[in-house]
Amino acid sequence: MMTSPRMEAVSDAHRPEVYGLNDIILCHTRISHVDGHLGRYRYRDYDAIELVNSCALEEVWCLLVDGQLPDATRRAEFAAELAALSTIPPAVTGLLPAMARLGERPDGIGWLQSAVLLLARSLDWRPVLELDRTVLRRQVLQTLVTAPIMLAAQHRLRQGLEPVPPDPGLDHAANLLHMISGEPPPEAHARALEQYLMVAAEHGMAASTFAGRVIFSTGADLGSAFAGALGAMGGPLHGGAPTLVLEMLDEIGSPDQVEPWLRDRLLKDERIMGFGHRIYRAVDPRVEVLREVTARLGSDRLALTQQVEKQAAVLLDEAKPGRTLRANVELYTALVMEAVGLPRSLFSATFAMARLAGWGAHLLEQRSGNRLIRPVTAFAGGPTVPVPSPAERGRTHG
Ligand code: COA
Known about the structure:
By secondary structure, the protein is mostly helical. The longest helix has 26 residues, at 133-158. It has 17 helices and three strands. Helix content is 56%, strand content 3%. A three-stranded antiparallel beta sheet has the order 1-2-3. It starts with a helix and ends in a 31-residue tail after the last helix. Bound molecules: coenzyme A (COA). Coenzyme A is lined by residues 16, 20, 237, 241, 271-278, 320, 323, 325, 328-330.
């Protein structure tokens, strides 16, 4: 059958490598590198997994935001800076109860997004191109340290509980768990969450990072750039996946159901959550480290999840020959978050809070040599035709 030039143009515009900005270089960066073929990623000059296994979260934040791993003196200065920025403006505190009550379903990432915007509005954050780097860096750090306080408060208010203030004696991850549950967490839980927050702190030009950089490039304020990144993060193809992974494991239920459940899903051409990645073509290095963290914590779901991981790889090879679809970070993220006692409604928001560090680093980098990000489209419509007259359009006036 003959195809018209117009039809060819439409199908061309929807080729996956065209649609979705595959392999398009947006900018040069020194923040991170994701090597999809070797299955590795790095933060600045270091292998990310090595950092996760040997560093504290604040060191990784300092590395991402300021560009260097801190020595002991610098680390203490950085911690003091963070502590000084951890107060929520009273105007924002006053609005949190009303925000927490909105909507039928608890929506952690939505709470975080609204809270970040309120923070920016209440502190009169100016358009980014009017600000020097020092002011922007302070806003980035302020967002990093206040986000968990605002999120935990809304979670508790939603349940009719009083917010729990941060305990200055606890580190960031321990404090998050403490502010959610009201109890100081076991050390093993705090370290597991800290490792997760480092694993997920940064990951190249993820859709959310791109969204944030696009907004920043227009010169809007930093709160808007973070809010845009948070919006992109909430989708099921990005940071919304961990909750769906647990729902999948709940549905599968027992080892004998793994294969039939996965087959049924693939027969319906539906996606298996926690599998596949745009950049990683073989191994996602975050999977292994989070599997180890889960094993250390102990999780009733570990054996079933490992079976799903193995079986899905086989069935995805059958269903999608030519693509290597393997477990991604979200599969074990779900298990780690559940094992440390985070409620499901906060899974995506916790992922997003981890990524605030990477987004912040990217936005600061975008500040130097900023140029409006503005791609083009391939027009897939027909030739220009004259606009029909009002009479031809059947209109009487206007
Ligand atoms: N389950 C089933 N099929 C999958 C799949 C999955 N998890 N991931 C990709 N595919 C299939 C698609 O259906 C598509 O098949 P088709 O060519 O027959 O239409 C093909 O692989 C390519 O999909 P595409 O969306 O172009 O791949 P991508 O590289 O852009 O997708 C993801 C990356 C992450 C969006 C995708 O793998 C996905 O949706 N995964 C599930 C959600 C998830 O875990 N997200 C967290 C990511 S860290």
